Amino acid sequence: MGRAKNVLITGAAKRIGAACARLLHSEGCNVFLHYRSSSAEAQRLCYELNQQRPDSAKIIQADLLNMAELETVAREACLAWGGIDVLLNNASSFYPTAMPDVTEQQWDELLGSNLKAPFFLAKALAETLADNNGCIVNIIDIHAERGLSGYPVYSIAKAGLAAMTRILAKELGPAVRVNGVAPGAILWPDHDLSESARLEILQRVILKRRGEPDDIAKAVLFLVNNADYITGQILTVDGGRTLFC
Length: 245
Hints:
This protein has 245 residues and is α/β, with parallel strands linked by helices. It has 7 helices and 7 strands, in the order βαβαβαβαβαβααβ.
């Protein structure tokens, strides 16, 4: 058996990030968990994973919009176990922005977390990823293809991340594979979403049910461990929602 893969996961404290951390860890990976504000959740997850396998999980707090802090995350992740094999860009701001009221601060935050930070982390880690024949997996969104009404800036940012996935596959290949996962209805937003709105969404899902964070984690695991000849691709995990016009 080869050595354990070392994985940096951004936005790892809860939701999809935590599901990916748990599954990758269960498959023998060491996981370096980034969080911005969810300190308690990150500490609990790190403790949980280290109870299962000592010194297999570490955490770091950072605002990835701050380039100095982003570079610290990349540096500390490399030092943790001697290099990084997988970068999972999961951290994402998500909230509506009515077109007439969009502020520059909202633009900077949404594009910063969903596009700028993934790019500069990839840049910072390109050398160690190449040394380890590693990979990058970006968590995108089905709305990168057809924007989500009321969320123009978020949709633009995710569209940029989809484009970035494809161009970085060219720029970093052949040593580094770069792919993405585009979730559909997996977790309802933190802000209020009425029961009728939820039912309306599910009516446009072929499988007639919401997905789970583990559905995304399994797709990530496939791209990390079983996709040696796949790069520049975006795997849609949406229960068939994008089959509707």
